[in-house]
Write a structure and sequence with these properties.
With 276 residues, this protein is an alpha/beta fold. Helix content is 26%, strand content 19%. It has a single domain, classed as Alkaline Phosphatase, subunit A, CATH 3.40.720.10. The longest helix is centred in the last third of the chain and has 25 residues. It is globular. This is Membrane-anchored protein YejM (Alkaline phosphatase superfamily).
Length: 276
C-alpha cells in the first residue's frame, strides 16, 4: 500500500468542532486533556436550544458567547471569530475571519479554502431536504455517526486536497442522547434522558455524557494536534436538561440547554492570551 501524503496545515486554516448536546458541566468534569488544551474553558450561551437552530446561527457567525466578557471572539457582540460580509452588525472589534458567501463555509470556499464537513446528527443527513441548508457550503461532506470514521475521513480529505488552506467542520454525536459510544458498557438502546420522563436518571446522564466526552477526546486528539498552530473553535451547540424544573432533553429554551462549553484558539494562540 502506498503511503499517504500528510499535508501540512496552514496557519490560516480552521477546525470547527461541535460536541452535540454537550453540557458545560459534563465537559468541565471530564478528563479530556486534548480538548482542554485548546484554550481556557468558558461557560457560554449557545445561540439556540437544538441542533439545526444553533448550527444555522453559527454558520452565519453567531457562535456561542459570554455576554459578561468584553473580549472579542468570546463575545461575538464585541467581535466575531467568523464574520459574514454585509450580514448583521459588524461588531466593535475586527473579526478573526471575514468572508463573503451564502454562509460561513461557503464564504471560506469562495476564499479558496477546501471546505470539509462531517456531521453525526440527523439535521445534516443528506437524505433529507432540510439538511441542504447546513451542507451547502462544503466542497466535501460526510454523514456518519461514528467519531473514528469521521476523523479518518477528514484526515483523508485534508491530505487529498489541492488547497493550501482548510476549513474543517466536525459535528460529533456521541455526546447526544442516548450518550453512547463504541466500547460503552451499557446498551445503546437505554436512553436515560427522555422528554417528560418521571424517573430521575440525572446521575446516569451525567456519568454517560462525561464518559462520552472522554471517548471523543481520545478520538480527535490527533486532529486537534494537527491544527494546534491554526484556528480551533470547540463548543457545544446546545445542552440537555436533566430534570431541572421537571424538564428533560433539549428543544426547549432554558439554562441547561443554552449553557455550553466554549474553547477557542486563534492562529495558534489560546483566546485568553490574545489582546483585548
Amino acid at each position: 500500500m502506498q503511503d499517504r501524503t500528510i499535508r501540512t496545515i496552514s496557519d490560516d486554516s480552521v477546525l470547527f468542532v461541535t460536541l452535540d448536546s454537550c453540557r458545560y458541566d459534563s465537559f468541565a468534569a471530564a478528563e479530556v486533556p486534548a480538548l482542554k488544551s485548546v484554550s481556557a474553558l468558558y461557560a457560554a450561551q449557545a445561540p439556540s436550544h437544538f441542533t439545526y437552530g444553533s448550527h444555522a446561527a453559527m454558520f452565519v457567525g453567531f457562535t456561542p458567547g459570554v455576554a459578561a466578557l468584553k473580549k472579542r471572539f468570546l463575545n461575538p457582540k464585541l467581535g466575531r471569530l467568523f464574520r459574514l460580509a454585509a450580514a448583521g452588525h459588524p461588531g466593535l472589534s475586527e473579526p478573526g475571519f471575514s468572508v463573503d458567501g451564502a454562509d460561513i463555509p461557503d464564504g471560506f470556499r469562495n476564499a479558496g479554502y477546501a471546505t470539509i464537513g462531517s456531521a453525526a446528527m440527523g439535521w445534516f443527513n443528506p437524505a433529507t431536504a432540510v439538511s441542504g441548508t447546513l451542507r451547502q457550503g462544503f466542497g466535501a461532506f460526510q454523514f456518519s455517526q461514528h467519531a473514528g470514521e469521521q476523523v479518518a475521513w477528514i484526515e483523508e480529505q485534508i491530505d487529498a486536497s489541492a488547497a493550501a488552506d482548510q476549513f474543517v467542520f466536525l459535528n460529533l454525536g456521541e455526546t447526544h442522547v442516548p450518550y453512547h459510544f463504541e466500547g460503552a458498557d451499557w446498551a445503546a438502546a437505554d436512553n436515560p434522558c427522555v422528554p417528560f420522563q418521571t424517573v430521575d436518571r440525572r446521575a446516569d446522564c451525567a456519568h454517560r455524557q462525561r464518559l462520552a466526552c472522554e471517548y471523543l477526546d481520545r478520538q480527535i486528539a490527533p486532529l486537534l494536534a494537527r491544527f494546534a498552530h491554526a484556528t480551533i473553535l470547540l463548543c457545544g451547540d446546545h445542552g440537555d436538561a436533566w430534570g431541572e424544573d421537571g424538564l428533560w432533553e433539549h428543544g426547549i429554551s432554558c439554562a441547561a440547554t443554552l449553557t455550553v462549553p466554549l474553547l477557542i484558539r486563534y492562529r495558534g494562540v489560546p483566546v485568553e492570551a490574545l489582546p483585548d
